[in-house]
Amino acid sequence: QVRPVESGGGSVQAGGSLRLSCAASGYTYSSYCMGWFRQAPGKEREGVARLHRHLGTSYADSVKGRFTISQDNAKNTLYLQMNSLKPEDTAMYYCAASTYYDCSSWTYGGQGTQVTVSS
Predict the structure, then answer these.
(1) Which of 18, 44, 67, 115 has the fewest C-beta atoms lying within 10 Å of its C-beta?
(2) Could you read off the pLDDT tens digit of each residue along the chain, which spans 119 residues?
């Protein structure tokens, strides 16, 4: 079974930038939706950004204007460009896919990549 592999996390100061990548051949091809989620210690997992094959992109209010989700089909890679990072962005970030048109069910598979933002 194909599993996505997230990478690109790290430690940065507030105001800095990171670009996360999610690579998994076949994982993106069959999906209507690809997305990035995050989970901070003691908090529930939350959706950060979503890319729908037909409907475009959407973002959580907390990251609008700062994060950009994109996909390179030739490389079967999903990206999350994160700018103007804030300490509250600190979390483990995961990519996921949904084969449902309404993105109603997500499948995760990677180990995630840690993002730590210091003030």
Answers:
(1) 44
(2) 556 789 999 999 999 999 999 987 666 667 889 999 999 999 999 999 999 999 999 999 999 999 999 998 888 899 999 999 999 999 999 999 888 999 988 888 789 999 999 99
Length of the chain measured in residues: 119
| Separation of alpha carbons 52 and 64, rounded Å | 17
Identify any residues that bridge with 39 across adjacent strands, giving them in sequence order. Answer: 92
Rounded CA separation 10/54 (Å): 32
Q: In which region does residue 12 sit, left (phi positive, over 0), alpha (psi from -120 to 50) or beta (all else)?
A: beta
d(CA 94, CA 110): 7
**Which tokens hold the place of 58?**
């959407």
CB 33 within 8 A of CB 98: yes
Q: Can you tell me the distance from the alpha carbon of 32 to that of 12, in angstroms, rounded to the nearest whole number? A: 32
